[in-house]
Design goal:
The chain is mainly alpha-helical. It has one domain. Helix 7 packs antiparallel against helix 8.
Length: 222
């Protein structure tokens, strides 16, 4: 099972491997309805997650004997979604706004590492319902940038990535409603720090196991 340190290392490697597309630090990413998919997104959508379960119920059952039934497109990591100014996860293919950049890391590099609070809120009618204090008052993008104990087990970052993938990646294994239901389940059962996911069959997944499931739907972990 991936640790927080391993996850952060892997995502940093993914971010470094992506090509950079700098933008001005004050530029707001606007929603482009009906925009054509980028080559990167088309590539992702054509890559099935072979041998992995696309739903959390399938992950809990551990039944991967029928791979042809469960094949689905893999998605971007949290590390990719939090660096849209480098040409990674494209927020234009979601109904959400990352917000404006508060500052950039490195003069002239064009990479934003801090975002203002004018993006789509983490808690809202089109995102997530709950009360976990780790994410209260923060935007989706700000949750992606939380570090260490600010986001226990990186649950917030991974659930945000899953939600964005559910909109942006054709054939991704989970719908927006599926992702929202996973978050609501964990939030109702203790939240990110010490909570769990309760399946319909009574089986339980720890938050770490929920994160491991989401990681299994991401291209970087295939």
């Amino acid at each position: 099972m991936a640790t927080e340190k391993d996850t952060e290392k892997t995502e940093n490697q993914i971010v470094e491997s992506e090509s950079a597309t700098p933008v001005g630090s004050g530029t707001r990413r606007r929603i482009l309805k009906g925009a054509a998919l980028t080559p990167v997104l088309l590539s992702l959508s054509s890559r099935p997650v072979l041998g992995a379960e696309c739903t959390i119920s399938g992950f809990m059952s551990g039944n991967v004997s029928d791979h042809g039934h469960d094949d689905c497109a893999c998605g971007f990591t949290p590390g990719a979604w939090k660096t849209p100014d480098r040409g990674d996860g494209n927020w234009n293919h979601t109904p959400f706004d990352p917000g404006t950049c508060a500052n950039s890391k490195g003069k002239g590099k064009g990479q934003c590492n801090s975002y203002n609070s004018d993006g789509t809120p983490f808690f809202g009618p089109s995102t997530f319902s709950g009360s976990d204090p780790h994410y209260a008052g923060k935007t989706l993008m700000q949750v992606l940038w939380l570090q260490g104990n600010q986001d226990p087990h990186q649950f917030g970052a991974h659930i945000v990535a899953a939600l964005l993938n559910s909109y942006a990646i054709p054939g991704y294994g989970m719908s927006p409603a599926d992702v929202q239901a996973i978050y609501a389940n964990v939030d109702a059962n203790g939240g990110a720090a010490a909570g769990y996911y309760m399946g319909n069959n009574g089986k339980i997944l720890t938050v770490e196991q929920v994160v491991a499931f989401i990681q299994s739907t991401l291209c970087a972990y295939q």
